[in-house]
Amino acid sequence: MKTKNFIFALTVAGLFLSSSCTKQAKCQLTEDLDVLYTDDIPFEMPSYQLPQIPDYKVSITDFGGVGDGTTDNTEAFAKAVANLSEHQGGELTLPQGIWLTGPISFTSYMRLNVERGAVLLFSTDHSLYKLIESTFEGWKAYRCTSPLNAYQCTDIAIVGEGVIDGQGDSWRPVKRQKMTDGQWKTLLKKGVTNEKGNMWFPSEGGREGYENAGLRNSADPAVRESVRDFYRPVLLSFRNCRNVLLSGVTFQNSPAWCLHPFCCENVVLYKVSVRNPWYSQNGDGLDLESCTNTIIHKCTFDVGDDAICIKSGKDEEGRRLGKPTQDALIVGNTVYHGHGGFVIGSEMSGGARRLYVKNCSFIGTDVGLRFKSTRGRGGVVEDIFIDGIQMVDIATDALSFNLYYSGNSPVLDAGDTPDNIRMDLLPPVDETTPIFRKIYVSNVSCNGAAQAMLFNGLPEMKLSEVEVHNSTFKSVRGAMFAQVNGVLLDNVTINQEIGDPINYFQAENVIVK
């Protein structure tokens, strides 16, 4: 792995006085980020830039805010943000209390300081969340306004030691299979279920939107309003923003994804905690989509879907936008529950490149390192460097490459034989063909997984230039290499309970050293 020279420069303008509320906190933040750049980053990483915030401070109480947990502070927040805009930015402080509100729209040069003991609680009155044109899961889509939202802002931050709660249970559907009998019985006291009785919805509008594409995709605004609850927002949506900092705060209980920076530049997440219930539908932790120059450092995730997820649009829309997620340091993070610890895809049509994932721990996730896509996506994922990953009790695969995320895999399923295995007619290789290559994994320790590795490429575009070095896997089953051409295992130990350590299916050039 060749290490290139990198820029070691810190850009923090004089107007930026503090990342939270104390010089000590700012010092710790910048010291920790500086340490990252002393590592042998395997590509040229741009210097990080923190937001520049004027030394002007107000409290939500200055605008009539009441932190009793029942008073609606939507108007107070709107007045506070307008005041910061009039002063060309500054800090809005939330002191100890429960601050109930509708959506908060950021202005440039704004820092929201959620102090220890403060809870920012978003309202369950869904009429406060206006329907807007946005994106979801890689496509343009109508969504309700996100509780925390910013568009084309520069220099914005959310800091402190408080909690931000999206009250997502008032929005999310729940699958019966994820509930105990007692939990399901409690849910049924309100809301509605589908006809099969295996999925619960908080409202009739949410159910109708979920089941009727004609309603949710209608050109008539009145029809869309009738199924408003279907358009669940992400908790935080920062779109086309520059110089973003999230530090110290706990984000939890999102209606859909929790944190969604989209087409942003210079994003820093530092010591952030992200929590969603394990049963939460689309309950991703962080979806970093089409962003450039990002640091995710010392954060924790305990969520209901993928934890740290890299995206870049879906299918033709994503390819047309053509913005890869690139230049990211993802270091020293911990994931507890999640469908995947570190994930790329499946919406990655704009590509992903120059990502460095180091010293992260995944404890009890469904998959550890997860790469996923399917035919029709397109996009190139390359120059991904992963080093020093600790995994414990992984439910399925410790390391997974699945280019058949939508199903119809050529790998033998239970009960299949070589005579009846499903094989597709090979489509031509074109811009719709996803490509995963130049991926380097080293120093992985996995104590407990259903399968050590799954490499499942496409027959027309096999996985290539994937290397795994100096790693140990303890698992029930070993490794499966299917539709690969160019995989290196160097000093890799697989302690499997059953079967062979390595299995092959239409695999070429697999080198085991």
Can you summarize this structure?
This protein is mainly beta and 513 residues long. The protein is built from seven helices and 36 strands.
Instruction: Please tell me how large the radius of gyration is.
Output: 23 Å
Q: How far apart, in Å, are the first and last alpha carbons?
A: 17 Å
> pLDDT below 50 for ≥5 consecutive residues: which ranges?
1-22, 414-421
Helical/strand content category: mainly beta
The helical percent reads 10-25%
Number of helices: 7
Mean pLDDT: 92
Biggest β-sheet description: 31 strands, parallel
What is the fold's blueprint, element by element?
Layout (H helix, E strand, L loop, with lengths): L22 H14 L20 E3 L8 E5 L1 H13 L3 E5 L2 E5 L2 E2 L4 E5 L3 E5 L8 E6 L2 E6 L3 E4 L2 E7 L2 E3 L8 E2 L5 H7 L4 E2 L5 E3 L2 H8 L1 H4 L4 H6 L9 E4 L2 E6 L2 E3 L6 E4 L2 E6 L2 E3 L10 E4 L2 E6 L2 E3 L5 E4 L3 H7 L3 E7 L2 E2 L4 E5 L7 E12 L3 E6 L7 E23 L32 E2 L2 E18 L9 E10 L1 E20 L5 E11 L1
Parallel strand pairs: 1-3, 2-4, 3-6, 4-7, 5-10, 6-11, 7-12, 10-16, 11-17, 12-18, 16-19, 17-20, 18-21, 19-22, 20-23, 21-24, 22-25, 23-26, 24-27, 25-28, 26-29, 27-29, 28-30, 29-31, 30-31, 31-32, 31-33, 33-34, 33-35, 34-35, 35-36
Antiparallel strand pairs: 8-9, 13-15, 14-15
